[in-house]
Every structure is written in structure tokens, then in C-alpha cells.
């Protein structure tokens, strides 16, 4: 079972509210001490919230064993601050979230703020008798506070509400919910000084914000510098079976493990525009392991595949509805073998129009979709969507929940027919 290690590097006891962990009982960690909590083996979400004079402050948000078997962790200052806190997976410093010097940076920004700025932040910044900032109120209740905090902490912690309830949020906030590397122990460090894990004087820099989305390569541009694919050996025959033009985006996983993967939500490799009823071969490198989907938003239907597996050299793929469904899709091998063209993964029917209202969400681009059955940074698992998809599609044709029971489509010639309806 994964554990949560909470270290208090300050010289005073620190109280934490525990939501979803520790039987929802408060926890007080002694000065310069560490406490350990144990989480269930199955998917579990919650938050560890630092408390300052009875007010909620910085909070570490955790989902163990989430989508793809990965943890999702982040730091949030939406409800306030009074100290410094970071969180990361044990042994994985690249997963660290949070500003280890948040309060120091807040004080510097406050000191430099103009009288007009300070006046606009009345009721949200609290100082002691000497004028030193000791606490910050909830950002969500003070709109002007959000831009002020972004001036020094953007990309290090959740500042706005993120993508939620139809709002796209701010990218630097959404990036805080990037997947970890499988399921591991969580390391939370609290301090009035530097909250970097390790030595009390450790000045390890906060991890760099996730790389900004690079310009998406068009199919035509990518083709010019991928000569190994010109023979048509590796890739997919992509078909737009709908009556509307559509651009399809290819995402290579950030990393791949034994039955797990680091899903890529923000850095597409290439894209291709297809007219209604049009088709085109899309070349890909043999190392590609990821997905293709309509557009760049979620919820979306994912056609997941790898071009060349390490164990047998074949291509393997499937359809996944775990991050939602924006329409039907199928995948089929092109090698003529029973395991390939004799087997089709996915479905062709419209499962959205007549779905129950509770299963549907309106995506930020206005498209009505079925919600995620596994949950993500926008919302938890939608049981109505899962129940509907089990009935209308079934786990054998597409992943709806869990990582088993779904047909894996294989192709010895490392090439698939992929159709979007």
C-alpha cells in the first residue's frame, strides 16, 4: 500500500487537515519530525492541508493509482497560504510540485507592490504588527489576488481553479496535474524556510514548469524529415467516416513502463486534417507508442497503439473510453491475419445522442461528450457514463474501466486501419 511521508522542517508543531486519508482525522506533526500515513491499494484521492491559526492554507492533492495506473499529485494555494510546502513521488524529484519558498516570494512581491495594488488586495493579505506577511487568504474569493500570485508563483502551484465545470482554466495550472510515474509513496515537505526535501538548508530549485506546447507539426511538414516511413511500412491508414472535416492529433506517451504509461495531454507530435469521408496514410516512427484522437481536448475517444512492440516486433492497439467519448472509432490490422483484419476493436454506433444527461458533459469547445469513466483533474469518475458504455459498447470492444478484458488488435506488418465516425 502506498504511504504518505509528511515532514515538518519548522521549529513548531504543524497541524494538517487530512481529507480522504488518516480516516479524515487531523494530524499534528512535531517540529523537525516526520509522520507516515498509509493509503489503500485501490484508487484513492484526498488532500493534506496545512492549517494556520484555524485557516486552511497550502494543500497537497493526491490521487493514488489513477488513470493508467499512475499517481496524480499537485500543490494548490487556491484556499490560501501561511507556510511553504512541496510534494513529489518518492525517489522522483522530476515530479515535484509546489513553490518551496512561496511565503518568501509572497513577502517580496508585497513589499514591492504599489499602494494601489495593496489597496486592491485588502482582506486577502494578512500581516503582523511589524508589517510582515504571515498569511494569505483564499484566491478563489479575491479575483485580484490571482494575478498578484501569478507574478511570482505561476507554473509552480495551482493558483486558479484550473479546467473545471466547462472552464478551460489556465494552462500553467492544468499542468500541475500531470501524471506521475506509476504508483509510489508520496513525499510532502512543510517548512517556514525552504520546503525542498532533504537537508534543512537544501536550496534545490523547484522543477521547471512543464515544457510549453511546441508548435504542432502538420502531416506534410513531418513527412519531409521522416524518411524511414516513406515506404509505408509503419503507421496508420486514417479514415474520417464522418460528414464533417476534422483534424486528428497524435500524442506520443511521455514514458512507458510495464503495463503503465505517462499519458501526454498537452504536447501533440503531429496532426492531419481530413475532409469528410477522406483517408490518408500517416507515417510514424517505429518507436511511437501513444494515441490519436479528434482535436486536442478531452473528454475524447482515444485510439491507443504502439507501432513496434519490443517482445514480438508487431504493432498492437485498442480503443479507450476511460478519458471520455466524443464519438465512435475502430482499429483493425492490415496484415490479413485472423488476429489482425479478422478482429476489429471499437464500435461504430452513436452512443452520445441518447445517453442519459448525467453521463454527458459539454467540452470547452462546446462539443457534447460522454464524461471520463476514470476521472482526471477536471472531475472524478462519472459512473453514469461508465454504466451507459458498459451497456452500449462493452469492455470487450473498448477500455471503459480497468486494464483488462478488452480486445488487443495486432498487426504483423505494423500498420492499422483507424476509422473515426
Structural notes for this entry:
The chain is mainly beta and 421 residues long. Helix content is 11%, strand content 33%. The chain has 6 helices and 28 strands. The strands form 7 sheets. It has a 7-stranded mixed beta sheet. Strands 4-1-12-8-9 form a 5-stranded mixed beta sheet, with no helix packed on it. A 5-stranded antiparallel beta sheet has the order 3-2-5-6-7, with no helix packed on it. The model is unreliable at 199-231 (pLDDT under 50).
Ordered list of secondary-structure elements with their pairings:
Elements: E1 3-8, E2 14-19, E3 27-29, E4 33-38, E5 44-52, E6 55-64, E7 72-76, E8 84-89, E9 92-97, H1 102-112, H2 115-120, E10 125-127, E11 133-136, H3 143-153, H4 171-174, E12 186-191, E13 217-218, H5 219-224, E14 235-240, E15 246-252, E16 255-256, E17 261-262, E18 270-274, E19 279-283, E20 289-294, E21 302-306, E22 315-320, E23 329-333, E24 344-347, E25 360-362, E26 368-370, H6 383-392, E27 409-411, E28 415-420
Parallel strand pairs: 1-12, 13-18, 14-28
Antiparallel strand pairs: 1-4, 2-3, 2-5, 5-6, 6-7, 8-9, 8-12, 10-11, 14-19, 15-18, 15-20, 16-17, 20-21, 21-22, 22-27, 23-24, 23-28, 25-26
Amino acid at each position: 500500500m502506498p504511504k504518505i511521508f509528511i515532514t515538518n522542517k519548522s521549529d513548531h508543531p504543524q497541524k494538517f487537515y487530512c481529507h480522504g486519508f488518516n480516516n479524515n482525522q487531523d494530524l499534528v506533526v512535531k517540529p523537525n519530525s516526520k509522520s507516515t500515513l498509509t493509503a489503500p491499494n485501490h484508487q484513492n484521492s484526498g488532500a493534506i492541508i496545512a492549517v494556520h491559526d484555524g485557516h486552511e492554507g497550502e494543500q497537497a492533492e493526491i490521487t493514488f493509482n489513477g488513470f493508467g495506473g499512475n499517481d496524480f499529485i499537485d500543490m494548490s494555494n487556491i484556499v490560501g497560504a501561511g507556510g511553504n510546502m512541496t510534494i513529489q513521488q518518492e525517489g522522483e524529484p522530476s515530479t515535484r510540485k509546489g513553490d518551496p519558498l512561496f511565503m518568501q516570494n509572497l513577502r517580496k512581491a508585497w513589499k514591492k507592490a504599489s499602494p494601489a495594488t495593496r489597496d486592491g488586495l485588502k482582506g486577502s493579505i494578512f500581516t503582523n504588527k511589524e508589517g510582515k506577511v504571515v498569511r494569505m487568504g483564499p484566491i478563489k474569493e479575491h479575483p485580484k489576488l490571482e494575478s498578484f500570485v501569478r507574478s511570482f508563483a505561476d507554473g509552480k502551484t495551482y493558483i486558479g481553479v484550473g479546467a473545471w465545470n466547462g472552464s478551460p482554466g489556465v494552462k500553467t495550472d492544468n499542468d500541475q496535474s500531470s501524471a506521475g510515474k506509476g504508483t509510489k509513496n508520496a513525499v510532502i515537505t512543510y517548512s517556514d524556510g525552504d520546503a525542498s526535501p532533504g537537508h534543512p538548508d537544501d536550496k534545490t530549485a523547484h522543477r521547471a514548469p512543464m515544457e510549453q506546447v511546441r508548435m504542432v507539426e502538420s502531416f506534410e511538414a513531418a513527412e519531409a524529415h521522416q524518411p524511414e516511413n516513406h515506404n509505408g511500412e509503419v503507421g496508420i491508414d486514417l479514415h474520417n467516416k464522418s460528414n464533417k472535416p476534422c483534424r486528428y492529433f497524435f500524442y506520443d506517451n511521455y514514458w512507458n513502463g510495464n503495463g503503465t504509461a505517462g499519458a501526454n495531454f498537452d504536447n501533440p507530435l503531429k496532426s492531419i486534417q481530413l475532409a469528410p469521408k477522406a483517408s490518408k496514410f500517416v507515417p510514424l516512427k517505429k518507436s511511437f507508442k501513444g494515441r490519436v484522437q479528434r482535436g486536442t481536448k478531452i473528454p475524447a475517444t482515444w485510439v491507443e497503439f504502439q507501432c513496434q512492440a519490443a517482445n514480438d516486433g508487431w504493432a498492437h492497439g485498442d480503443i479507450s473510453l476511460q478519458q471520455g467519448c466524443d464519438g465512435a472509432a475502430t482499429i483493425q490490422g492490415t496484415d490479413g491475419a485472423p488476429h489482425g483484419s479478422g478482429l476489429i476493436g471499437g464500435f461504430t454506433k452513436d452512443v452520445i445522442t441518447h445517453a442519459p444527461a448525467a453521463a454527458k458533459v459539454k467540452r470547452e469547445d462546446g462539443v457534447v461528450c460522454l464524461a471520463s469513466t476514470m476521472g482526471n483533474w477536471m472531475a472524478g469518475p462519472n459512473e453514469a457514463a461508465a454504466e451507459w458504455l458498459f451497456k452500449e459498447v462493452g469492455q470487450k470492444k473498448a477500455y471503459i474501466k480497468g486494464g483488462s478484458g478488452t480486445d488487443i488488435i495486432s498487426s504483423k506488418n505494423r500498420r492499422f486501419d483507424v476509422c473515426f465516425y
